[in-house]
Specification:
By secondary structure, the protein is an alpha+beta fold. Helices cover 39% and strands 28% of the residues. A 5-stranded mixed sheet has the order 4-1-3-2-5, with helices on both faces. One of its GO terms (molecular function) is blue light photoreceptor activity. InterPro entries: Acylphosphatase-like_dom_sf, BLUF_domain. It comes from Hymenobacter ginkgonis. Pfam families: BLUF (PF04940).
Length: 147
């Protein structure tokens, strides 16, 4: 069975602290688990990059909710298609807070801090972007093991 994978980027209308996000994550994780979604949420300097994985219907339904969510603006789809396997299947929603060094590593692909630059600079480089996102995800998993 192939999996729908959607990657989007947006800016938060209001800065959200990591503590506020940690408070919201259990609700989002429960909803995602119930609908068979997995993925990763990256947040830093009001920029959001999220990977959603699951059935096409579930992924597109939650993405439509995100598009209507007043907490997001400048929402851009970076990738949307079928993949042979989940890249982030271990989480209903992994969360990584990005710092300035992380954002600069992503800058070669997307620019979370600049609304005008919210498109991938190298669309053919998605395997490398996926690998980078998985690296950030591995950091999340490592921090859960050590805490």
């Amino acid at each position: 069975m192939q999996i729908q994978q959607l990657v989007y980027q947006s800016l938060a209308t209001v800065a959200i602290t990591p503590a506020q996000l940690q408070h919201l994550l259990p609700t989002w994780r429960t909803r995602n688990h119930a609908t068979g979604l997995s993925g990763l949420l990256l947040y830093g300097e009001q920029g959001v990059i999220q990977v959603l994985e699951g059935s096409p219907a579930s992924v597109h339904q939650i993405y439509q909710r995100i598009l209507r969510d007043a907490r997001h603006y400048n929402v851009h789809t970076l990738a949307d298609g079928l993949v042979p396997a989940r890249a982030f299947g271990q989480w209903s929603m992994g969360f990584v807070e990005l710092g300035a060094p992380d954002l600069s590593r992503l800058a070669g692909y997307v620019s979370p801090a600049q609304p005008a630059g919210l498109v991938p600079s190298h669309p053919q480089a998605w395997p490398e972007l996926t690998a980078l996102l998985q690296e950030f995800g591995a950091r999340e998993q490592s921090s859960l093991i050590t805490s």
